[in-house]
Amino acid sequence: MGIWATQELAGWGRYPIVETSVLRAERRSELFRAIEEREQQPLLAHGLGRSYGDAALLRNGKVVLTRRLDRMLSFDPSTGWLRCEAGVTVEDIVKTFLPRGFFPPVVPGTQFVTAGGALACNIHGKNHHVDGCWGDHVRNVELLLGSGEVVLCDREQNPELFWATTGGMGLTGLILAMDVRLYEIESPLIEMESVRVECLDDFFEVSKASAGFTHTVSWIDCVKTGKSMGRGIFMRGRHANATAQRGPSPLEPLIELGGKLVDGRWFESDHLLNRAFMVLFNETYFRKQRPGTSRSISAIQPFFFPLDAVRNWNYAYGKRGFLQYQLVVPPDPEHRVLTEVLERISASGMASFLAVIKDFGPRVHGGLSFPVPGTTLALDIPNHGPALLSMLDALDELVADAGGRIYLGKDARLSRRLFEKMYPELDAWREVRDRWDPQHVFQSELGRRLGLS
């Protein structure tokens, strides 16, 4: 059995930071021992810590670090089914299978997430409108319960437990392994189009016209107001065919080298990402895209994982950290909630350095899973303390009243009252969780804050 040690843990937003007891598991047997010897303390799994808030944090309990449980157990090239342990990352899968002509079915904006975390958050990507979430491509999930029993669950076996675990934020058990279906691609390249949009209405028109593309997302300038509010760059793409080629780019090796050398820790400052800097950056970034549509052939990494080019970029927000606020609201021809959110953020002076907007598809999984039909907006905002928390509380009210919700995988401060309003299938989720984990062995700071534990 490994040794438990006291350690500080934080999510990617570096807020909050908690001190807890951790075990870096090297073998599956250590997970069983952790269950047996927990001494009535709650448990939680922690992968790479890319949940932004407190979903993978636990005070007064024990946290099992699962990253090293990363074996790929089998692969069937005729079907694309990969069986892997929960610590295998999207990066591991891409590096291993992209040269063989396979790619993960759904990826988020970073490749540094584990398969276990991907299922626990039921991650979505640029292709949600086509391919749904991670859980839509998974079967035979091996789950270690608080009783020490291992069960298999998917759509056919213990389906209620599978859907409670899919998006269940790690609160039903320790995910040991799963099958995930990779899809076959002809080329490691992306056919990409970038469209400059001048306002929020323009974004929705371009989004509607982009249904033929498998992957869509838009960067948005959340500083601008008035007629230019919602301006940005809409990016859409699809996996290229076997004949696609990229022209030589003399700067690309330098950019790649710079990404390996540059570390966000060098720029750690509570004052770097201020409003003046954001206004300048947004104006420059917007102007780099000429009016109309530009077409290009892109490599996989810059298209899917642009922020991974800079290590530890989250440190640029300083020691105060930052909060990511991701919402989804149902379709509304007048875009009232999105307009109100953008107006309030701009007026507050607490602008978001990174802001993306996208239309979700029709798939809904229930429970604690986030995506529902509508438009999602994600914002990274420096932690301004009480002023920011107060503004986000007010935005929560708008979102909840509109029938929308906040993404738990990125949340650090949503109230229990509004959480219960946003997730109407919560009671059904609790009933399943209580049946499989009656003692609430698996807990987290997020779960405690929202009344789940």
Structure at a glance:
With 453 residues, the protein is α+β, with helices and mostly antiparallel strands. Helix content is 27%, strand content 25%.
Can you tell me about this structure?
The chain is of the alpha+beta class. Helix content is 27%, strand content 25%. The chain is built from 14 helices and 19 strands. It has helices at residues 28-36, 90-97, 115-120, 128-131, 159-165, 200-208, 252-261, 275-287, 300-304, 336-348, 386-401, 416-422, 426-436, 445-449; strands at 5-10, 17-24, 43-46, 62-65, 72-76, 81-85, 102-103, 138-144, 150-153, 174-181, 183-184, 189-197, 215-220, 232-239, 293-299, 322-329, 354-360, 374-382, 405-406. The strands form four sheets. It has an eight-stranded antiparallel sheet. A five-stranded antiparallel sheet has the order 5-6-10-8-9. Strand 8 and strand 9 (150-153) form a beta hairpin. Helix 10 packs antiparallel against helix 11 (386-401) and helix 11 (386-401) packs parallel to helix 12. It is globular, with a radius of gyration of 21 Å. The model has no long low-confidence stretch (mean pLDDT 93).
